[in-house]
Amino acid sequence: MTSSRFPTILNWAGSKAQVAKMLLNLGMSWFKNYHEPFLGSGAAFLGLASAGLISRSFLSDINPRLTNVFRAIQKQPNDVVSGLCIHSLLDSDIHFSATLGRLNVKAPNGQVDIKDASDMIYLLSQSFHSTWYETRDGQVSMSRRRHTRPFRARKQNVIRAAALLQDATVSHADFRLMLGRVETGDLVFLDPPYLYEQDQVDQQSYNTARFGLADLQDLSVEIHRLVDLGAQVVFCWGEIADEVVPAGGGWIGVGRDCVWISKGLGQKQILQ
């Protein structure tokens, strides 16, 4: 599949759909291996895979409910669509609350859960600002968007995403473990939770294990190591942070995001 239009699976605050479109305009070469250890909505992966720019992909996130969505779509896309169709029929304030309550009753157990996957897709589509917030004890806290449009099960998005995920390895794992698998010549896309000014931990709190300053420092060490290894790196942040990345490469503003791209990644010289 080689298309610049790519499917959307999750409504996700901080989605990197615009960044994916920017990368497609860079004139990038094809990559055998692609790594994305802060998966989020998966927009970067879906964009590059739709354009035929990556082959094998290693996708991961510390949030098990999130990785479950991608594993469920990868393995049983038609069943996920069936669950979404039920949500489309029942969509209401009461149904939203009941779905959130059901999700919070049981903790993820590492097994592919089709119902949880369709529930998460539905909740994010109808929630206020599509924001996912987890308390320290693992409970998901969300509110329904006011005057929201009726939920629609986007079957084709799920089916197209399933095709793109066939050669992907999806894992629930810490970024340190996943980045240890990167080899020379691989492409690495990094979109960690943002910290601002004096923040010590991520205030968005999309997972019980908060991303903090110590994690950012570890990630910075990894970025330097990956560039020295000969991998190509894309790093997204809320502001220009030269102290995090090595010399070389440069920053591009994409919407509210600042995106650092290692030297030599794109053929077009658009880096500032």
What can you see in these coordinates?
With 272 residues, this protein is α/β, with parallel strands linked by helices. It folds into two domains: 17-64 and 159-261, Rossmann fold (3-Layer(aba) Sandwich), CATH 3.40.50; 70-158, Adenine-specific Methyltransferase, Domain 2 (Adenine-specific Methyltransferase, domain 2), CATH 1.10.1020. The protein is 37% helix and 16% strand. The protein has a seven-stranded mixed beta sheet, sandwiched between helices. A two-stranded antiparallel sheet has the order 3-4. Strand 1 (31-36), helix 2 and strand 2 (54-61) form a beta-alpha-beta unit. Helix 4 (77-90) packs across helix 6 (114-126). The longest helix has 17 residues, at 213-229. 44% of the residues are buried. The model has no long low-confidence stretch (mean pLDDT 91).
Put simply, the count of helices is 9
What is the overall silhouette? Answer: globular
CATH level 1 class label of the largest domain:
Alpha Beta
Would you identify the CATH architecture of the largest domain?
3-Layer(aba) Sandwich
Radius of gyration: 18 Å
Residue runs with pLDDT of under 50 for 5 or more positions: none
CATH topology of the largest domain: Rossmann fold
Strand arrangement across the biggest beta sheet: 5-2-1-6-7-9-8
Order of helices and strands: HEHEHHHHEEHEHEHEEE
List how many beta strands DSSP finds. Answer: 9
Q: Can you give the helix content as a percent range? A: 25-40%
User: What's the rounded overall pLDDT mean?
Assistant: 91
- Integer tally of domains: 2
Beta-strand content: 15-25%
**N- and C-termini, Cα separation:** 32 Å
> Main beta sheet, described?
7 strands, mixed
